[in-house]
């Protein structure tokens, strides 16, 4: 029996874009870390492969690494699965293909939500030397920039191959004793050192962390400066080097304070799990004096410049505010601006500030245009360096003839226990009609940052996301990644297919033996079309077929050169609780696909209700989305009738 080809049009389009799109001028790379090192013969060692997107966004990557199985053996990191798997990293959300066999390591991974931008760990390779091996190498398959048949790093927006360079691994082995690493990393501070003085406000902090045994785990490093933690991936945190020796640079937000002592603490683990920590202090005043009891009891002054309370403004207006404090000065890090439920800080991208602690001018450019048919509310909170706080709310919009006075000025002063006491001026919001009041009370169930959109709009958005995922058939994403990254079999011995649906089964493991109990002659993994192949002469063989979610299958075959292709069916295994749950999920998806018109009508109703009360960008997009969906579904249903 021969199977008809069943390839989704969307898969063909995505694959064509990835394989034939023009190559962008990018400089992403794979590299071994460490690239060179010495290990003990027969002991378990580990190296990592790092990925660096060089400033581009990536949502998928695959790699092929060659090694000599006569020199090293790969240690399986997941004995519960068939075959040998290396350790996965944290670069992407899902690792969909992982195999180490016959001198080749192949790994493919991707992310469905969020992209990788920067440096991360792609995979870890635990291994041991074989016999008296003195040296070995790991070689990344890379034939040139833009070649999608070797290792690849895919750009999110264009699917271009970003990979332009690789660094292979070269290692030596010597005789010795396999002693577990029980020594913690060593932490030093090149600049500033412990007790240093005169460190300027613009200085960067430098930390060295070394570990000559298993190496430093960079993802466990936490550098805390004056109470603010910095970790790998945070703004202000950068590093260079290898796990044997990392140099970490911290660019503190707000700079190094002057006239007061600063503290740096570092916490780090090595790859064997040993922890180390160290704390230093610098810029300590030469003659410390007892901390005086604060005499500043006056809160900062909040002075909205444009708009002022009750002003009428344009929807694309920037907001200007002046904050002053003539005593201890403004605490810049305490500033909070809340505009229509959206929170901004002094270091938010939408906020520019200038001045000094005695007087700061803030310019807020809202991330969304202000509504032109309802009021906007801005709450400003700030503290001075003595702990006194002030809060003020102003209201502005197109028409304020019936707008209540919602301004509130509060004084917050420190208590003896370090807390604060707030005395607000109470206000009461007056609604124009009962229907609006009920709508606003309904929205109180949402967090403050989402109330401006409205509960119906949030419900319509969630319904759009869930139904959209069903309509896109995300249940086939793992097979899609196999289609994009797995090698195709051009001289297949046979095809594995689903007994119930007659569709090809991708990712199945096929072991070739001369007979039951015999040693394996080779292993093949089915490609997207369910094909497998071996490099063996004609003869009688035994196949052992394994695939998660299916029953095991063993059979004898007679292979002849240029013979008819064998078709082998696999029976799904639905006895486990997870597989039963997966079947229920598929039924739910099919139901949502079948009832798409009803879902579109429900979503359109929610979006219209939200748009009627608050015509935001989100509600406008949702109305358009569901209108288009309902129209297309109606036309298709009419055509079928």
From TrEMBL:
InterPro entries: CarboxyPept-like_regulatory (IPR008969), Ig-like_fold (IPR013783)
Keywords: Membrane, Signal, Transmembrane, Transmembrane helix
Domain of life: Bacteria
Signal peptide: 1-27
UniProt xrefs under CDD domains: Type_II_cohesin
Transmembrane segments: 457-486, 596-614
Protein name in the entry: Uncharacterized protein
Source organism of the structure: candidate division WS6 bacterium OLB20
